[in-house]
Amino acid sequence: MIQFDHELIMPNEDLPFKLFLFEGKNGNYERGRHWHRSVEIFAVCEGGLKFYIEDEKYVLSKGEFLIVNSNEVHAVHSPEPNKTIVLQIPLRLFENYFTAEQMIRFTHYSKECDVEMMRYIQTMYEIYLQKQRGYDMQVKGFFYLIMHRLIAVYQETDITEEQLRKNKNLNKLSAITSYVKENYNTDLNLVTIARIFGYSPTYLSRMFQKYAGINFKSYLQDIRLRYALKDLQRSQDTLSEIALNHGFPNGKAFARAFTNQYGILPSKYREEYQKDKKLT
Q: Reduced to 3 DSSP states, what percent helix, strand and coil does the chain have, rounded to the nearest 5?
């Protein structure tokens, strides 16, 4: 399984950023270690959350928020029900304030339980939910107040060489993993990807192992299995068709990889999934 997963974030259709209620609102939820290029704010309105950024643990309570920087490997754990607003801001919106090449960092801690920032985020979300005439202009108004506060209060200007180096490598890896996700069902391999991105296979292999915590072959297979799993749930295609549609050479190779990863044959998984679906 992938240890660090690159997440590709798409803004809301009507906004230049992504605004939503955290998917772990019902509790008993974990999002494993992952990273993305967007800057992310988690604002807890009710309940609490546990965060893990790199090797540090952060516990958020009602009225507190956390800023996750671009390319920071992080995980979220919400054992209890909560109401948390999530704001994901594309990195390019900060381009006039980069302290290094495509890099900007903010402190993780809210300054003395920043009531003003929480008010901006909550009000913006409430306006967005109501969607009254002209809501988009109001929402963007509060968004730029948040952006200004991030720059004026929370930006860190001292960037270490280690932080810069890691950011550059994760930017490279983000481009590669995005390409793999778009072309996973073709005849991809480490040599091909290395040639496309101008690296030696050895260097690319080391990069994957260090920053994704997995080798390239396992990463590619994991992506293929994730998409194949969705087809098992949603389509009526045969196992051989699913295998070929998602980059496996044949049904036998697909069955072997699926069983190794999920502990069950794909045919048995589909059977049990359909039974459970009928019961609900």
A: 50, 20, 30
